[in-house]
Specification:
Helix content: 25-40%
Distance between the termini: 68 Å
CATH superfamily of the largest domain: ABC-type transport auxiliary lipoprotein component
Number of helices: 5
Structural class: alpha/beta
CATH class of the largest domain: Alpha Beta
Shape: globular
CATH architecture of the largest domain: 3-Layer(aba) Sandwich
CATH topology of the largest domain: Rossmann fold
């Protein structure tokens, strides 16, 4: 009798565990967070994660919800005049997630005028973007870069004050490279981007 009860109990536990095991196998969200499938990256999940970080890391007074933003396209860390389909897609999904959170978002698509490097290596906004922010009465600018390693793409974002260029918030994320990601990195690059190129992190 006891052995029969034990078998029934084990069977019930197995049935309860099946949905969770199935979800993990399919790359669905788990309690530990969202799993990004290797061959099917969730770009809206990436945008959501970055938007949450920009809000939670805000260190200047109250939460920045609802302010007017200029959103620039992600550019290569090694060449700030270069972007590609990956950079534009991440920027588009980030814009969607910020808009859903009540921000007024104006997008800038020309990578060549986004940021400049100071002699010390610090990234700051170009005069053209600062002027554009004034025209749109934007309080802040979201600018960011991507850098490549053999296995990942490293995304770094900054929320910058449009007037003083001071850093208001930051966000960062590592995305695992896959066939789909590599295709987007190589496709339609503004500077002849090649899939085999690595960033300064790996040279």
């Amino acid at each position: 009798m006891k052995s029969t009860r034990s078998l029934l109990l084990l069977a019930m536990v197995g049935l309860l565990l099946l949905p969770g095991l199935s979800a993990c196998a399919k790359g669905q969200p788990t309690q530990a967070g969202v799993t990004i499938p290797r061959d099917n990256p969730d770009f809206f999940g990436i945008g959501d994660d970055l938007a949450r970080q920009l809000i939670s890391n805000y260190r200047h007074g109250s939460r920045p919800d609802g302010i007017r933003l200029i959103l620039t396209t992600l550019v290569s860390l090694d060449n700030l005049g270069e972007t590609n389909r990956f950079g534009r897609t991440v920027s588009e999904t980030l814009a969607t997630q910020l808009f859903r959170r009540g921000f007024a978002v104006e997008e800038v698509r020309k990578a060549a005028v986004l940021m400049i490097k100071e002699p010390e290596g610090e990234l700051v906004l170009s005069r053209d973007v600062s002027r554009l922010a004034q025209q749109h009465q934007a309080h802040a600018v979201v600018a960011g870069t991507y850098a490549l390693t053999p296995q990942t793409v490293i995304i770094n974002l900054r929320l910058l004050d449009a007037a003083s260029h001071s850093v208001l918030s930051v966000a960062g994320l590592k995305v695992q490279r896959s066939a789909a990601i590599n295709h987007m990195l190589a496709a339609d690059s503004t500077a002849g981007f090649m899939d085999s190129a690595l960033s300064g992190y790996e040279r």
